[in-house]
Amino acid sequence: MGLMAGATALMLFGMVAAFGTASNTVIYTGPLSEVVEQLAAPIAQPVAVDGDSHARELRIQRGDTVSALLAKMNIRDAEASTFLRNNREADALFRQLVPGKTLTAKLTADGELQSLIFPLNGGKDTALLIQRSPDGFAASVQDIQFESHISLQTAVVRHSLFGAADDAGMPDGVAVQLADIFGGDIDFHRDLRRGDRFSVIYETVSHLGKPVRTERILAAEFINDGRTYRAFWYQPKNGTGGYYTEDGRSVKKAFLRSPLEFSRISSGFSNARYHPVLKEMRAHRGIDFAAPTGTRVKAAGDGIVDFVGVQGGYGKLVILRHAGDKTTVYGHLSGFAAGTKKGARVAQGDIIGYVGSTGMATGPHLHYEFRVAGVHRNPLTVALPTATPLPQSQIPAFRDHTGDLMIQISSIRNLQMVMLD
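The structure corresponding to this sequence follows.
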């Protein structure tokens, strides 16, 4: 008991040291929860609990409608659906369903909508607010005052990263960031093990106690198959921010292992595979990622668009040319992102297209290839170079910035161990 109290005190002390002087920041001082993931991740992520109601956060995807969003968030409320279709202010939802924006709803356990917050295009602090009262629903567009919070979470993986994050109450955006940060070192399709652990410190934004959006991960630790990986956000003065290990090495790799945010592998790299369309054995020089039509496809690395168009069995295709005679190939797309044209420069993580089933495909998926000097390599096993580390002149400032974050991450892990014991 004493050890647990000591770990808790250490964690809270570290939080005050790191964030107590940040302007407009509300420090999280609630309990740290230990969560063991049991179920696969649902479509929307729970982000808060308040009595008999809870909030769900959902990021809009290409092709989403208001009805589809309500269904994904498990909202079963005919009165709410009717109001959203007929109210003039609520019409903003239909006109501004921009992929990547976050919708937050508070609902009862029976799926009855209590309130909804939807940031608008008019400004960072402008949102559509819909609230239920005894007299029915009311909608208004308001300039609202947001509050910043620091959240600490920890979880144990039983089946999947996103399932564990869901049960821990981590928003969808946090799970996506975790996969992006550690995706160069951990293949989240094949490398996850039952009992893996992760801890994370991240920023959130709320309004009147209701979560509005998830901000950046500040620090994270992932223990995969007994090996520990850590990452800390750092942005030098007059420089570009990034994630670095304790000794200042960049966590970022030159290429992403997977060009999709959420996916499962449906067909691996192989010299001989039965082709489902041609009905014969053929080499499969890439990876197929099964995903719904319209799922966003990211550029695996910085590069230049070498080809965009339709090409034989690939269907709608994008080819990117990268430094060092490397190219990446993205096939069977349903469409191309705005600005994806031959000669255009793209940065790692930029959206270049959307999953589809064009060309010789039996269903929606992304066909992804990684080539070096024209030779196909397995994207999941090829060695990926890291990005440039911090210069030695910046290491002292980096250590000053991350010192308290390192204490907090260690405190979360130690507390988790005590709770499990």
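Helices lie at 2-19, 66-72, 78-86, 91-95, 161-167, 172-182, 395-420.
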